[in-house]
Amino acid sequence: MLEIFGYACALVIGISLGLIGGGGSILAVPVLAYLFSVNEKVATAYSLFIVGASAFVGGLKQHFKGYVDWRTAIVFGIPAIIGVTLVRYHVVPSLPNVLFNVGDFEFTRRMAMFGLFAALMIPAAFSMLKERKDKPKGGIVTYNYPLILIEGLVVGGVTGLIGAGGGFLIIPALVILANVKMKVAVATSLIIIAFKSLLGFFLGDALTMPIDWSFLMAFTSLSFIGIFVGSYLSTFIDGKKLKKGFGYFIFVMAFFIFYMEFFIKP
Hints:
Layout: H1 2-20, H2 28-34, H3 40-64, H4 70-94, E1 98-102, E2 105-108, H5 109-129, H6 145-162, H7 167-178, H8 182-208, H9 213-233, H10 239-264
Antiparallel strand pairs: 1-2
């Protein structure tokens, strides 16, 4: 029954992406961990593939609308790809099951990865609740290369650890560090998320762990179906109201993950 519910959640993830344009893929890690009972390495690895593939579909839609700035995607994407690949190939496989002990308390790798994931779900939820306002005047796109390099490596590293796209970090960075308009930043972030997540998965996890491709493709295919269903429903449903509700739901999920990992300890 849990697995059936898990596959239904895969469809819901896609529907939410189609309806509100992002954020739904952040549910991939908890769905994989708690409904399919996979460990933290596998959950974050599979999530990278699901997030990357879903973002790629969304990014292509935005490309055909003319909103994607490909030059900015490459400038920001390269350091992010380096960051996520290094973490997935070198850091995650080398982390011990127990990171340290405090008396009888064991702080595990799972606690670290899922604890960080839950912590970062909170600003992600705030970003969904906040109204995005574009700049009153469109400026010339410029790049602060040193900060872009640092930001890209950090976002890539975080993505590698938690298995989520990090759009709530990328979008403000594009606006602040490259003077990009908000609509362009949102669209371009999808392309950055797609490439850094997929390349991080294929250059990291696919080379260091066995992958259950039949399960992963089934889950991702359901998410894709959900995206098209959500896109169709978006013509009848106000996505902005749903986005706020989904933001509050992410808050609840963050506290649920923290409770499960630090108090229940599965």
